[in-house]
């Protein structure tokens, strides 16, 4: 067909220009070279790409954008490809994009310890950033499961969450400035390192969380905190989620900003971890219905903090809010408790088929959310196992309808079942003024939910900004906005 | 003239429609009624208005916007009219606007203590919000000099700063959701109360800090913190600003997030306070060149915190970084120290003519900023007094060239002198990658600085968003973007 011929000519011309600009070794086109970049890490999603380019600096990114714009070929920026919703790989609709992989841009440009800031390139791996900050006695606070391979550019584009949000906020709250390549190839240098700057629209918020649809983030100035060097950790069994919520309030009142984690899992989740992950054991003598890991952190006063932890738990026990509790008495025990929490993905993958959701509701509504979502799922599949893994302090509950492998295989229409159950859970969150995506983002899997839950006014506002900044729909067309 | 006649007809028709919609008592048109709304609180700026309307609810605001849009009359939203840069009153160029004063929308709609959130209308006075939060043992953290009369809608539109930014961030960091009336009268309900929501562009950031140019904020969901109930306060004299910066680092490392204020003033500022404000005295036995007020706050551990304060100051003294220090030993003394800091505006007004600036630089660059700005000012007016009032922990220094009344009167061209000196101070901040407006906003006085300092890319991005959201330039035309 003529169109395909034209497309092939266009793509060939574009690739020649890209090679001239970046060097041949920075432009991948062979199918075997493309594979790691066009398929998501769990192997569930794969889409075609015109090429993968690996620029080494910001002006090369700018050149790539100009060339793609001139040839009418879309651009998909990519970091560590660790998205949980297929956000980093091409879709199977529309023109195959040029994937701009930022891995080669991984310099830490500058650390200013006295200002609590560091300037990094988009391809820096999160763990590298954490370590570089710690070497200066500072904390880069965002922490997630994928931190060993995810890149800061991806964290910024998806406003990544994780386990430290309760105290330090999301990625958005830990960035001071950005450098971004815009749709016409212009480089916006917004690499400010200021705590205060009230001079009009705060442009960085346009690019944080918009998943590469408005520009390519090439560098960022991150905010650093004093490094907490002392910790106290406990594992306890609250009577129920409402009791856990009450205890959260007690910790907030007593410990203030020392409180750095408040993670809740249910009995089924703990059973799966114990059963499927070698070396994991229940920290308490009995299996209870609900379990909470609570952590305090501070720059000073470790003993006093341990006492505060103990007092707060004793107070909760006296009020009849907990069945049992244990404090970690050393670093090894502390690591052991965290390992249980960190083993949930592995356990669930081995134990059956979980339909992961990522809802957030007001913190005060989490118990009601769990209750209603359980009812809604059981109205569809009576007695189905439910896993709950909640960042309770953030109101973010991963509520996971869970099938045995056998039961899953026997379903007549698995895809329809998955969609039905996820939608019914998201509906409960929506009724409680919550969201279907707390921390994973929209990617490809969340697009139908955007269409279903977002108000007309919101979609109109988002589209207006998209059209204003990327009028030719160059960046990630078809993404984010249904 | 025909145009004026047409305008008068238009205005008359608009006012009739507004009265029909809101009731006559909510539409002010008499010159004497308009005065409090058309002139800034310091009496320096005054501009004409077609009318002042005082809607009582969001749908009335929406109706006002639709009517103004239909008649082609611009809209200027207004809160407590406490702007320091004439942001809340009309300019003397362009069509006289309808001022939408939000004072009647002052309901606290809802407090959810367990979620740490409260929903308030735009006209709520900041102090009312702080008090309502405290009644639930929660903190609404933003605190400023004008808190007794400024309104939350104005705080949001200007991303107000204040004295708690070091620990809790600016207004932007203390809001979870917004309700906004858009340029076509649509009400966007973004009153979420979530800690996490990654579903596309975070729309609230479009309206925070954009000074009413993109929409009218009618309500907000604010973030509340645990209430710190224990404090430790000290006043000390660092050897110089570099020593103060070093001590700031010592406090951050030792005290972490307990550190809630780190305010520095110079000798001239303290002299003026002592001389002109009854009851104010130097907390130390001698007048030193530099003075710092440092405050710690916590939910728990007052005695331990006082010891931490003392140890840190002793450590600084042993390192030769301070001349002298005194700890507040009771609430009265604590209040006395803060009163010195809060008396600077009164003292400076009585003592002479200060040319206030509002620069921020990276925290680590504040000593260099003060040194260079002093040199730059003295190159123009040798030996001129300089006042420094710095939120050192935020990198925000109010650097104030200061004239005696006599010297000011004798100047041939005062306006030109004011512009020259302010610009030379802002230039130094700009060289150090800083900003000319840290916390006051742009208003009318900052417009020339926007044109002078902002990059073409930034102005283009801001204009693109303005055109996308307010294509007919209804909201605050001529503001923010030069």
Automatic annotation (TrEMBL), chains A, B:
Q: Which residues form the FAD-binding PCMH-type domain?
A: 45-227
What's any GO biological process attached to this entry?
A: respiratory electron transport chain
Pfam families per the record?
A: FAD-oxidase_C, FAD_binding_4
Could you tell me one molecular function GO term of this UniProt entry?
A: catalytic activity
Q: What PROSITE patterns does the database record attribute to this sequence?
A: FAD_PCMH
> Is the Hydrolase keyword given for this protein?
no
Q: Which InterPro entries match?
A: FAD-bd_oxidored_4_C, FAD-bd_PCMH, FAD-bd_PCMH-like_sf, FAD-bd_PCMH_sub1, FAD-bd_PCMH_sub2, FAD-linked_Oxase-like_C, FAD-oxidored/transferase_4, Oxid_FAD_bind_N
Q: Does the keyword Phosphoprotein apply?
A: no
Report keywords, A-Z: FAD, Flavoprotein
Family from the record:
Belongs to the FAD-binding oxidoreductase/transferase type 4 family.
Q: What is this protein called?
A: D-2-hydroxyglutarate dehydrogenase
Organism the protein comes from? Caballeronia sordidicola
